[in-house]
Amino acid sequence: MENIVTQIQGVPLNHYIIFCSIIFAIGVMGVLIRRNVIIIMMSIELMLNAVNLLLAAFSAYRGDPTGQVFVFFIMALAAAEVAVGLAIIIMVYRNTKSVDIESLSKLRW
């Protein structure tokens, strides 16, 4: 465990912040631009992974395991989000034969 912490601490914290910001921005752009529900869900997962990586980096730099505990809870939240999101996508596809966001307007009364 000691070896992992020294490897993480060898990279400056600014690099982690920049890298996670880029990954998070890509996820935000995927949510805002794309119309496919599956790609939107993948973009949300990308944003959650960027936050997880940054929390783990801060946790390693401070030597405090609190960030890693938050990562565990975020991963559990992401797994629940995937399960519920996949169920919603399957039901939308059964009703509209498409996973396009625009096809959801057909589900209105």
UniProtKB/TrEMBL annotation:
Membrane topology: Multi-pass membrane protein
PANTHER family assigned to the protein according to its UniProt record, in alphabetical order: NADH-UBIQUINONE OXIDOREDUCTASE CHAIN 4L (PTHR11434:SF16), NADH-UBIQUINONE OXIDOREDUCTASE SUBUNIT ND4L (PTHR11434)
GO CC list: NADH dehydrogenase complex; plasma membrane
Keywords tagged on the record: Cell membrane, Membrane, NAD, Quinone, Translocase, Transmembrane, Transmembrane helix, Transport
Pfam families: Oxidored_q2
Organism: Sphingobacterium haloxyli
Cellular location(s): Cell membrane; Membrane
InterPro entries reported in the protein's UniProt record: NADH_UbQ_OxRdtase_chain4L/K, NUOK/Mnh_C1-like
GO-annotated molecular function: NADH dehydrogenase (quinone) (non-electrogenic) activity; quinone binding
Subunit and interaction comment: NDH-1 is composed of 14 different subunits. Subunits NuoA, H, J, K, L, M, N constitute the membrane sector of the complex.
Main location as per UniProt: membrane
Primary gene name: nuoK
Protein EC: 7.1.1.-
Entry similarity comment: Belongs to the complex I subunit 4L family.
Protein name from the UniProt record: NADH-quinone oxidoreductase subunit K
GO BP, sorted A to Z: ATP synthesis coupled electron transport
Stated role: NDH-1 shuttles electrons from NADH, via FMN and iron-sulfur (Fe-S) centers, to quinones in the respiratory chain. The immediate electron acceptor for the enzyme in this species is believed to be a menaquinone. Couples the redox reaction to proton translocation (for every two electrons transferred, four hydrogen ions are translocated across the cytoplasmic membrane), and thus conserves the redox energy in a proton gradient.
Enzyme category, top tier: translocase
UniProt catalytic activity: a quinone + NADH + 5 H(+)(in) = a quinol + NAD(+) + 4 H(+)(out)
Spans traversing the lipid bilayer: 16-34, 46-63, 69-93
